Amino acid sequence: MAGSNEMTINLVIFGRTQTGKSATGNSLLGSLDFESRCSPRSVTARCSLGHSCRISGIIRRNSRELALRVRVLDTPSYPHSCLSKEQVRDTVRSALAHHFGREGLHLALLVLRADLPLCPDESHHTIQLIQELLGPTWKDFTAVVLTHADKAEEAGFNNEEAYLRSASRTLLSLLDSVQQKYIFLDNQKSIIKEERAVVLRKLLNFVRQNNYQVLLPKHSKE
């Protein structure tokens, strides 16, 4: 984790182009570390690691408040408009091993858009990539982030329960497979201190549910 007075969580972000993947990383860090903009092509072409400052008031362990640090690895989207699957896979695998090979990875975040339906084959390629990179226990270390929650709310889904009642079987099956580890994210609100704290507490709860286990990425496929 980190020193006795603080905790560090290591996260990696996956997702298709224009799902709000890099914006999610910025929201979690409370910064603008990653380039995020509307574009007719994939914006992120290489892995990039972002670090948050010390965050207080988020977590307590053994009746003691700890400072939290967040490390986020942003990755190229897949499918990618310019890179092949092999290029994305090898780039991400190398970055995971370099940045998290010693301390370990706490969670992989699969970013999807809440304002668009998830069709049967749409997330297949990204999930397959996650499986190849994280191995057979990938479901234990993966959570789903549903971005553009504000647009879903504008469409009449006033809470998470109402949204999920209308969600596709594909999405519901995916959430079941990762043990209901999901969060809704309004990327505009999440940079506000209070909203960001809510999101980070949910992620920490997922880490706690997993007994603070970490995945140790390696350069090899094994």
Automatic annotation (TrEMBL):
Belongs to the TRAFAC class TrmE-Era-EngA-EngB-Septin-like GTPase superfamily. AIG1/Toc34/Toc159-like paraseptin GTPase family. IAN subfamily. Signal peptide: none annotated. This is GTPase IMAP family member GIMD1. InterPro entries: G_AIG1, GIMA/IAN/Toc, P-loop_NTPase. It comes from Todus mexicanus. Residues 6-222 form the AIG1-type G domain. Gene3D superfamilies: P-loop containing nucleotide triphosphate hydrolases. Pfam families: AIG1 (PF04548). GO terms for molecular function: GTP binding. Keywords: GTP-binding, Nucleotide-binding. The keyword Transit peptide does not apply. The lineage of its organism: Eukaryota, Metazoa, Chordata, Craniata, Vertebrata. The keyword Transmembrane helix does not apply.
